[in-house]
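Any chance you could type out some protein's one-letter sequence along with its backbone structure tokens so I can compare the two?
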Amino acid sequence: MNRFLLTMQYDESLMLPIFLRHYSQYFPPENIFVIDHGSRVNFVPGEVNRIYVPRDKAFSEIDRLELIQKIAQGLLCYYDLGVYADCDELISFRDVDFDSLEDVVTYVAGFEIFFNKSSEIIGALNPLECKPLIFKKIPAWGLGFHSSNARPSALSIPMAHIRYFDRELSRDRLIGRRIVHNNMDKAEVSRGIAGHWGDGDRELNEFYSYIDSSQANISKAKSFSAIQWNEVFNISAPKSLYVDAEPKFHAKGDYKIFGGQFYNLTKFFPELYKG
């Protein structure tokens, strides 16, 4: 199955090299497309497709979603399947046969990951990061690529959300994210869109406080296996039986709802484990 990978980035000097090292296991460079939103330094290697767009307007999450949807839609005219991931999202396709993917839209099992005391990669399942990122037709994405009307199957493909994988490096990256948030479209800021970018320090500290208080459970981290969709999603029926609308799926909460249940994901992300 001919497939492409798409991402969008701005000045991701830390995340983009990790992202490309990971996905080069599964995609040839000519099938990787990086939308570069006005980076001050070009971090995209020459063998990868770089799509440059200027950064002379206030940043808009709405415009970003529309751009990615349209580029992905165009690429699907030439490819059988697409994958979209942010630069801090690493999907493991270890032992995945792309030709066997039956769903038009496939959800990933999203984990907030960190290293334990033995330098193993440990994941805390986060329903908010269980997203429809693999597709044969464009998903009904909402902002942040968190939603779709396609009914999820069991979540059998793990995704490492690496925004917190290193406490100090993550803190440094948050400085850039705050600057982006400060320069966002004011109407979107007033609606709370991407508010976590401006509140990253609190969220980072909250995550590691959770990890520090969960050491006993971390030592019992289990192997990953397919997760049933109803473990992470609630379903809402259409408002009226007479309205022809697909049911929507909503995340039940964040990583804290599972009460200290962790997974050992080391074997799925060897390139991250090697540093």
Observations:
- The longest strand covers residues 3-9.
- The chain has one domain: 3-273.
- The CA atoms of residues 91 and 159 lie 4 Å apart.
